[in-house]
Amino acid sequence: MKFKNYLTKLFILLIISLVPITSFGKNEKKITELKISIKLENAKLTAIFSKLKNEYDINFSYGQKIIEDPSTYSVNYQNILLTNLLNDLASKGHFKYEVDETTVLVKKTKKLNVQQTTIGTITDRSGLPLIGATIIEKGTLNGTTSDFDGKFSITTSSSNAILIISFIGYQNQEISINGQNNFNITLQEKVADLSEVVITALGMKREKKALGYSVGEINDEKLNLVPQENVLGGLSSKISGLDIRRGGNDLNNETYVYIRGKTSLTGNDQPLVVIDGSPVGDTNVMGGY
């Protein structure tokens, strides 16, 4: 009887001794040996830690700085060591960690600003490059402009800088770099401001108030109000300051165009005519259009 009781106590003792081995949730390995799989898009550190806690019973301890950190990260790993994931996140999220048995202690570190060169292309909705668009690093005076192909290059003070893209007649757009170095940016037109934007003779968009000269406007309805033999006839007496005269009553006589009177510093009072972006020196060219 005593021997039987002894065996019973020994059996109970063995069961109790096994309990600590299986008490670490779903994994029986040390945290440093644990392999995990995780996939999240644009998640904060707290969301990543919470998912690991729910799926692998891993406890995380962190302070207010981690909770308030607005940065997001995308992770997609299959069957990798937990320590590899933590090392990757630590380099991006600027924190350090320590493993204490079943708990990972996380502490925020000071972020080091690293300069980064970013390139990109700015276009409108139709894919045409926007020449002279302004690119400014937010909160600084650091900036540049796009070239004739809409391309730009800017070196920012941080890999997490924000770029402000602006162009006359278009809505401003803010781009967060987040370590990326190449962007294709499409700006949207400001519908409310279109009436304040002038397409100059050379095809460049400028605000009317930014031009150093006056602008005369005429629409197709006014131009075709009275049938004329050419465009110059249709413009006659319809734009302030524009004087159009015929050399006589014959249809073959030349047509003369004067802007704000017959005065010139160079002795040539003929205006510059631009058709579809191409300057034309002789006003008679307009006669056949």
From TrEMBL:
Domain Protein FecR C-terminal: 39-106
A matching Pfam family: CarbopepD_reg_2
InterPro entries (UniProt xref): CarboxyPept-like_regulatory, FecR_C, Plug_dom_sf
Domain of life per record: Bacteria
Protein name in the entry: Putative outer membrane protein
Protein species of origin: Algibacter lectus
